[in-house]
Amino acid sequence: MNRILLFDAPARTFMESMPLGNGRLGAMVFGDPLRERIILNESSMWSGSRQRADRPGAHQALPRIRELLLQGRNREAEELVNAHFVCEGKGSGHGAGAKVPFGCYQTLGNLALDFGHAEAPGGISGYSRSLDLARAIARVSFRRGNAEFSREHFVSAPGEAFVMRIAASLPGAVSFTATLDRPECSQTEATAPDELMMTGSLDDGRGGRGVSYAVRLRAVATNGAVSCADGALKVSGADEAILLLVAATDYRGFAGRQLSDPVAATQKDVRPLARKTFASLSRAHVKDYRSRFDRAGLRLGKRGGRQADVPLPRRLEAVAGGARDPDLAALYFDFGRYLLISSSRPGGLPANLQGIWAEEVQTPWNGDWHLDINVQMNYWPVEVCNLGELSEPLTKLIQSLVEPGRATAQAYYHARGWVAHVITNAWGFTSPGEHAAWGATTGGSAWLCEHLWTHYDYTLDRAYLAAVYPVLKECALFYLDMLIEEPRRKWLVTGPSNSPENAFQLPDGQSAHVCAGPTIDMMQLRELFGNTARAAGILGVDPDLTKELLDKRARLAPNQVGPDGRLQEWLEPYPEADPHHRHVSMLYGLYPYHEISPGTTPELAAAAKKSLETRGDAGTGWSLAWKINLWARLGDGERALKLLTDLLRPVMDKDFNYSNGGGSYPNLFCAHPPFQIDGNFGGCAGIAEMLLQSQPDSGAPDAPPVLRLLPALPSAWADGELRGFRARGGFEVAVKWRKGRLVSAHITSRAGTSCLVRYAGTERRLDLPAGGSARLDPDLSPSHDQAGRKHSTRASGFRLTTGR
To answer: At how many degrees (to 10) do helices 326-343 and 678-691 cross?
Structure first.
């Protein structure tokens, strides 16, 4: 399906521009006819440097902190945490760490194009700007004077370059001046008559030089002249011009190209590009991109009902005003897949808080990886959208945290294994944050390990499981050592910890953040211990550890329903300081974990529902996205769609005024606000969750997957189809529905395992060999397998046809 983001005016702000990327190199295209600006990014542009942020001897304060927590003296415990149990030094700089060792992700700079004309007689007409999600190509076209101008832009993974073609309908009409600049730490020089280079080194946070980078821009003109003077590249009188931009850094972290000389690297990269035609570069780019994008597809609404010719900002405004536009949800789903392919590729760094797109030197919250939901949410769509290999950068990041995390576990808890708290960066930061209110969160590493198991759960790749098992094991060892016994009920709990970024009120009216055994920790440890035990069993290792994990898993503090009927967030039924807080951490067991479900734990599901209703639908962008997934797990498609509509709400009007709360910018970037890409990815995953779920019925370590077809289908999506979706257990799924009812479902097993399939109260066990497929036909009409053979057996509610 062709997917276009369409605009009828140039971008005035970053939040209106069009993102391009190949996982490492990124660009934001504004599309100005006369003075173009293109923001450039490179995934390893990190200031700061490696540091020892663990506080020496911190574990000596641990017994007293725990004693106070178990006595209910949380405020005193929090004071001790702030005094002795936070990181050494300035930490993240309270989210502004560009000039401290923690560092921050930064823009690579700007490519500026000045076309050197005053406004032509008659002005600019026929303007159009579009981003083709099916080909990952941005286009700009307009008429100026007597000439038609067009520009095409893409960031090529095969070519490792940003490529731009500028063409005109009249011979010799293409003339412009190109410059490279950056707000700081840069110098630009001409390295050839047709080439500019910008170089520099970022601040290491200690007053020295950190990561060095190089950006090289080369121009190739048809029937025109190219020259360089005064730090600018000039093209004059050409019929067509091709710009080739490459970049590299000498970042030597856990992933990416390990380069020592970015200048030499960019010179090596640009040479073969200049010998290729634009057509060949474009073909290679599109082939590479579509090899991933075309694996899955989604149509919502009737065929031919799309509004692709309506500019995107107007579609957002219409939906906010009550218009029905189911295709906009499908577009948002495809945009999420597009962003994931464009910002996370094997061999690179994981997508950060802004993917790879930033225009600042000091990005919001350092553009880092927050471990209390944000980086994990970035990867929620990866498996179901058939993009599993794009999770490799996050896997590599997790593996890289084991070594520094061991030191942190020893320094603070005198424990085995490894731990990461709430934030990390390109330099392996695993210490607590700089303030107890949020930095004492201990569940970051447990949540990261959920990602490791999920990839196995979808692929059943035993070699992968063997490779990541040591990470799971050491993470579990840390929490086994870290657990303490709660004296009244003899439960095992964590301490000290936080329920991420939230506060509660004590009986004396004071607010506190530090606690023992928050609900999310208990859910995450039930998941981690169960997954690690399951992995050990599959691999045939560590029977004694498996027994300890399962024994202590059974002693973890259980989920509790409070006096008000809500799922408790803490061990005690404390009221929240902010009843409408953006985090809903106590619902982790509903999503992304699966120990709560309406069918098997109805009391807990009802308590989760009441918690969601009490928190309310308002929230930041990523919070809205999380709630979509939570309502989908509760089987409420109408409420999930309402949250998706809120996520699509425009947050910027024509006068650049921003409204409060989360929503979407004119280019569909998610507004936290400001921009955070996790909401885009969480929303994409939520749309999939409304249409296909495959979690087990319970959190039991050996529970099999259950494929739920159209589990939260809203009435507004009465017609549609999906294809290429993946499900736990190694299945691939295609589904068609009409008038709100299943028409057909096609399920293929990649691993030869069994599963249960459910639809509308009907259930069927499915046993398929590897490569085998089944067609589910609810109207009982004849069905055929892939080989054209009939193998039908009656089932209550649908017909099952199997074959290979």
So the answer is: 130
In the structure encoding, which two tokens stand for residue 112, read together? 């500026």
| 3-class secondary structure, 141 | strand
Q: Rounded to an integer, what is the distance from CA 400 to the centroid of its chain?
A: 19
How far apart are alpha carbons 686 and 751 in whole angstroms? 26
The tokens for 48 are 């700061």
Say if residues 776 and 770 touch (Cβ distance below 8 Å): no
CA angle, 518 as apex, 516 and 519 as ends, to 5°?
A: 145
- Is residue 785 predicted with pLDDT exceeding 70? no
Across 245-268, average pLDDT: 86
Q: Output the pLDDT for position 701.
A: 85
Q: Residue 61: which residues within 8 A CB-CB, separation 6 or more?
A: 80, 81, 83, 84, 85
- Three-class SS of 265-321: HHHHHHHHHHCCCHHHHHHHHHHHHHHHHCCCEEEECCCCCCCCCCCHHHHHHHHHC
* pTM > 0.85: yes or no: yes
Tell me phi and psi for residue 381, to 5 degrees.
-80, -10
Which tokens is 517 given?
Answer: 């055994």
Q: Specify whether the CB–CB gap between 196 and 216 falls below 8 A.
A: yes
Q: What is the pLDDT of residues 638-695, one digit of tens each?
A: 999 999 999 999 997 666 666 768 999 999 999 999 999 999 999 999 999 999 999 9
Q: Which residues have a Cβ under 8 Å from the Cβ of 252 and sit 6 or more positions away?
A: 258, 260
How does pLDDT run across 173-193, given as a tens digit for each residue? 999 999 999 999 999 999 999
- Does the pLDDT value for residue 256 go beyond 90? no
The answer to whether 694 and 727 are in contact (CB under 8 A) is yes
Query: What residue type is assigned to position 293 of the chain?
Result: F
List the beta bridge partners of residue 166: 151, 241
Q: Give the tens place of pLDDT for each residue, 337-363.
A: 999 999 999 999 999 999 999 999 999
Which tokens hold the place of 754?
Answer: 């069994």
Query: Is the Cα torsion angle 685, 690, 692, 694 positive or negative in sign?
Result: positive
State CA 138 to chain mean position distance.
22
CA distance 597 to 135: 39
Neighbours of 148 (CB within 10 A): 15
CB 155 within 8 A of CB 281: no
Distance in angstroms (rounded) separating the CA atoms of residues 55 and 63: 16
Please report the pLDDT score of residue 120 as a whole number.
54
What is residue 567's DSSP assignment?
A: B
Cβ burial of 271 (10 Å; 0-12, 13-18, 19+) is exposed
Instruction: Specify the pLDDT at position 792.
Output: 35
What does the chain come to in residues?
Answer: 804
Q: Greatest CA separation found in the chain?
A: 85
Cα torsion through 522, 528, 531, 532, rounded to 10: -130
Q: Which of 682, 797, 577, 670 is nearest to 75 (CA)?
A: 577
Structure-token pair, residue 278: 């634009």
Q: Helix crossing, 462-482 with 543-555: angle to 10°?
A: 50
Which of helix, strand or coil describes residue 632?
A: helix
Closest-CA residue to 588 (of 499, 673, 512): 499
Q: Which domains does the chain have, with CATH numbers?
A: 4-45+107-296 (2.70.98.50), 72-103+316-485+514-659+666-692 (1.50.10.10), 706-803 (2.60.40)
DSSP labels for 555-607? HBPPP-B-TTSSBPSSSS-PPBSSTT-S--GGGTTTTTS-S--TTT-HHHHHH
